[in-house]
Every structure is written in C-alpha cells, then in structure tokens.
Amino acid sequence: MAQSRVTDFYACRRPGLTTPRAKSICLTPSPGGLVAPAFTRSSSRKRARPPAEPGSDQPVPPAPPARRRLRLPGLDSCPSSPPEPSSPAEPSPPADPGSPVCPSPVKRTKSTIVSVDQQRNKVPSEDSSISELQTCLRRARKLGAQARALRARVQENAVEPSTPDAKVPTEQPCVEKAPAYQRFHALAQPGLPGLVLPYKYQVLAEMFRSMDTIVSMLHNRSETVTFAKVKQGVQEMMRKRFEERNVGQIKTVYPTSYRFRQECNVPTFKDSIKRSDYQLTIEPLLGQEAGGATQLTATCLLQRRQVFRQNLVERVKEQHKAFLASLNPPMAVPEDQLTRWHPRFNVDEVPDIEPAELPQPPVTEKLTTAQEVLARARSLMTPKMEKALSNLAMRSAEPGSPGTSTPPLPATPPATPPAASPSALKGVSQALLERIRAKEVQKQLARMTRCPEQELRLQRLERLPELARVLRSVFVSERKPALTMEVVCARMVDSCQTTLSPGEMEKHLLLLAELLPDWLSLHRIRSDTYVKLDKAADLAGLAARLAHHVHAEGL
Known about the structure:
- This protein is mainly α.
- Among the domains are: 187-266 and 276-311, Nucleotidyltransferase, domain 5; 451-553, DNA replication factor Cdt1, C-terminal WH domain (Arc Repressor Mutant, subunit A).
- The chain has helices spanning 6-13, 105-121, 126-159, 180-183, 199-220, 227-238, 244-253, 298-325, 370-380, 383-397, 417-420, 430-448, 452-478, 485-495, 502-515, 539-554; strands at residues 28-30, 33-35, 258-263, 279-284, 482-484, 520-525, 528-533.
- It is elongated.
- One of its GO terms (cellular component) is kinetochore.
C-alpha cells in the first residue's frame, strides 16, 4: 500500500480549497502586434507533483468544483486586451459539486498551462493590424499637408510683407556683422530708457574728449599741436585706434571746434618725421565757450564736450524723425518733447558719420631725370639772366675755335661763379653770390692775420655758454650765495666735458665776469676771491649775449 503524503492530508482536511487567482495579464502593444507576457503562477511554495505511476494502487481523485475558475476572468477585464467573441472559451468538463475529494495537482498544472496557451494565442488579427497602419498613414499625410502649407505661407511673407511699416530694406551692402555688444548696446544701458546714443557715437564722443584734453595740454604751454602728437596721446588714453578718419568725423559733428592746416618746418623729435615734411596741425578755436580767454580751461572743455554730445543727439533725432515718417500711419513728435526713442527704432543701426575732408599736403613735383631738371631751371630764369648765360657761352666757345691758339693760363681760382659750376648755381642771384664770396674772403683774411692771443681768446669765448650752465648748476647744488674761486674751479673741472686745468678754468671765469658783469661778480676779500652769481637770470638770454660776442670777435 502506498504511503500517504502530507499534501494529501492537507487537501482532504480543507475540501473547499481553491486554486489562487492569477494576476490579470495585460497585453502590451508592440510593432509586431499584441504580445501577451508569459503567465506566472501566484507565489506559492507548493511544488507540482508528477503524475501517478500506472502501476500504483492509489486512485486518482476527480477534478474539484473550483476548476471553472482556471479561465482567469481577470484577463477579460484588462483594458488593453479587449475580449474576442470569435474565440470561444474552452469547454469545461462537468464537475461533481458534492465531491469532497482534493483536486489533483497534476490536473491543476495542466489546466494552468492550457489557460496560458489560450492567452498567448490571443493576438491581434490581420485586419486590426491593417487598420492601424492605415490610420498612421492618414495621420502622416495630414501632417505633410500642414508642413507644405506652412512653408508656402512663410515664403509669401518673405516676398510680400503684410504691412508697409514692417518692410525691411533688403538692398543693403554686404558688410561685416558687428558684435552683439555693439548692435544691442542701447538695450544694455542701465536706468530708464532715454535718448541713448549708439555705440559708435559714444566711442566718437570719447575720442573727442581725449583729443580735446591732449590739445588743451599742448595749447596751454604754447606748443604746436600736430596730429602725430594727438594720435599717440589718444591711443594711450583709450586703447583704441585713432586715425585721420576719426578727426574728419569730429570735424563733421563739430565744425567750429578746431582749425586744421598743413604746415612744414614744425619741430619734431622723431627720426621718422623730417622737419621739412608737411604735418597736419590742429588749433583749437576759442569762441563763446572760452569767454575771450586764450587758454582752454576745465570749464571750457566741459562746455565743448556738451556741445559735441548735443550735436550727436541731433543727428540721431533726424534719423528717428525719418523713421517715424515711414510708419503706417506716420507719426510726428516735437523734438523738444522727445524723451525716449520709438520702441521699434533700432538706435545701434544708425548710419555712421561721414568724415569731412581735411587739408592735404601740397603736391610737390619730384624731378627724376636730367631733362626735367633743365626744363625746370630754364623756367625759373629771367630773360636777362638767360641772355647773359647765352653771351657767356658764346665767349667761352671762341677761344676753342680752330685757327686760334692761346697760351695756357696758370691755375688760378675762377673769378666768376658761372665758370666754377654753372649747372649747380643756376637760378641763384648773382648779387647774392657776390656777397657770400665777399664774406668768405673777409673771414679767411681775418684768420690769416689773427694773432695767437686772439685765437686763444676766441676758443675761450666758444666754451663760455657751456661753462655758464655748469657754473649755475654748481651754485644751485651748493645752496650758497657766494663761493671761493678754488671751490668753484674744482667743481667745474669735475663737471665740465672739456678737460681743463684749475688754472685754465680760472681764466675762463675771469673772462666770463668781464663779458657778463651783471650776472657774475668777483669779490676780493683778504687773500681769497669770492664768486657771486645771480641765480634768477635767464640762461637763454645769457647764451644769446655770449653768442653775439663770439660772432663779433670772430669776424
């Protein structure tokens, strides 16, 4: 007899035991159709027993009445898997309700597998897949038609704007696009919106302020103001390029601010600019802002800056007025009541200021060939001089004619300038040449007849301007009204560039006291000689007086 199992006893003890209901299985849609997930039994620790052996004596119990519940009614309630009326449910064998026999595990397992197979077989039919594809196709066609209509509408708006005031000028030259901080500079200004200037106008106003500052510094110390000096100062202040084009824009905005000229022989301290070259000079015009003053004061600079900014605002107002007139309907706002720009008026797209024309250096004719030099010299000669040169040429050609023989003359300096170098002295006045040669002869004659003492005195006179500057610096450094001769000579020997002995330096001081007694005085007290100097005297005037003495005694 077969041994009873614990599970058989548990089933017989509880005849009303039913099979746990499985969870509702929802079919998930997929591109290939509706796929039912694999059915899993409820979490139960019971293990399915294998079927009974055919040779065993244990009878197989009949199916329990709970078998009808294996159809999984929860599956029909899933919204994603509608029931299919075409697929009938599996017929269930009749069950005896009064049977208290426990259901067989083998039968229960088989019924569960059958129900899972039924759910897997519940896939969408071919008709439903075709209808779904047709729905997607109709939706795609509808979206395509909407896209084509939108594209056509955009093209129509680009060709023909709907409103006249929305027209944008399309015929514009292809220029480089400005950075965003310049194109939207007006929008980034702090505070309430007002009459804000464009970025390029504000840069020009800053250039005018820097230029006015540099010009005022040079003008107030009576120095010639050139564009080269102003350019260097403005670029160091602003860290931006400053060209003649910017000066022309300043002249356009504020015509009465400066007077521009092209001048030559302006003192320069650069090797790149020659003194004979023409330079653009700038002279400030002191009008009502200066109040009759001869210098540019801080108040005058402030007034000029305000005038320049007001002129820039007036230019922007003109562009704003033209923009208001182009609107539909046109607008008109009095300029004295205007406190801010129109919201649609792009301030930073105002056209740039056209630079005014500045004076240009005169065009000098450059002679490159000898033919041009001769033609230019002939045009400068007077008829009288041309006749004299022709007569001279005829006389000089007579001794060289055949049939006449003249003895060679000794080598003597030429008596007339044309015989020396006629080509180099063409166009020079003959009287001027005669005076120059007379002075040269007089200097040579004085040099040949000068005694050694006078030559030594002239050498000392030539050193006096330098020694006068050194002597004044010695007194300034010593901070004393008078010094002894020994101390002064020792200090000057150490400071002077020329190598002189103390005795020779004393002779120079004596000569300096002789020529300039009002500036340098010698006082003999007991055994010492004291030197006293006037520190308040002008060294430039003293140097001019000494140069006059040198010129007078050098002749």
